[in-house]
């Protein structure tokens, strides 16, 4: 029949995105920048599918992803394979502004730190989502997770804008649908699998930054 050759578009699934974070860890627990960035790309895609109000948030994430990809594909790319090698390389070569913004305002280390802080928000939000009930509000879960983490690093105006974005988040049923994982039970299973993985990547990065005194990079 004419027109019946429907092109099967690869449907977005949050499961695949969160699986990307599993690929982040090397055998000796180093974090691969390539997969870290791929995970964020998928999250941005998810966020954009929720509506235009979220583009001010995703734009910043996209910008930071691009900075890291440029390093990865640049002439010193071999130093940017893992977060560990990136931090070492940038510190050894004085490529990081440590106290105030100066000649290296967009180092890999400070750029990744911004995503790292956002990963903590994600971890807290997903854990709330996992343990939520039918009448739980995504906007409240999202705001609580944000206030407990990322908001502490944001000025008032950003906190205000983020708060407004949370208010227009779709409800739990729509949210689960867009995740495209299956019914609520499946979502809970998937999150039970994904959250510990994300926590692990978060913790390894946190320890690395803490050991090198990099948690407050400007
Ligand atoms: C699904 C709802 C999405 C809620 C997202 C919650 C996070 C709210 C963050 C608001 C950030 C506003 C944009 C501006 C940020 C920058 O000022 C600030 C500092 O950067 P600078 O030092 O270079 O100036 N940037 C940042 O903190 C990085 C923010 C990155 C945010 C990425 C958020 C991606 C969220 C992905 C959603 C996936 C949800 C999946 C759930 C099933």
TrEMBL record:
Q: Which Gene3D superfamilies match?
A: Glycolipid transfer protein
* Subcellular location, record wording: Cell membrane; Cytoplasm, Cytosol; Endosome membrane; Golgi apparatus, trans-Golgi network membrane
A GO molecular function term, named singly, is: ceramide 1-phosphate binding
The UniProt entry, under SUPFAM superfamilies, shows: Glycolipid transfer protein, GLTP (SSF110004)
What keywords appear on the UniProt entry? Cell membrane, Cytoplasm, Endosome, Golgi apparatus, Lipid transport, Lipid-binding, Membrane, Nucleus, Transport
Q: Is the Nucleus keyword given for this protein? A: yes
Q: What does the record list as GO biological process?
A: negative regulation of interleukin-1 beta production
Lineage, top-rank taxon, reads: Eukaryota
Per UniProt, what is one Pfam family of this protein? GLTP
Q: Which reaction does it catalyse?
A: N-(9Z-octadecenoyl)-sphing-4-enine-1-phosphate(in) = N-(9Z-octadecenoyl)-sphing-4-enine-1-phosphate(out); N-(hexadecanoyl)-sphing-4-enine-1-phosphate(in) = N-(hexadecanoyl)-sphing-4-enine-1-phosphate(out)
Membrane disposition: Peripheral membrane protein
Query: Which ranges carry the Glycolipid transfer protein domain?
Result: 32-180
The reply on keyword Chaperone is no
Q: Which InterPro entries match?
A: GLTP_sf, Glycolipid_transfer_prot_dom
Q: Which GO terms describe its cellular component?
A: cytosol; endosome membrane; Golgi apparatus; nuclear outer membrane; plasma membrane
Q: What family does this chain come from, according to its entry?
A: Belongs to the GLTP family.
Q: What's the protein name?
A: Ceramide-1-phosphate transfer protein
Q: Which species is the source of this protein? A: Gadus morhua
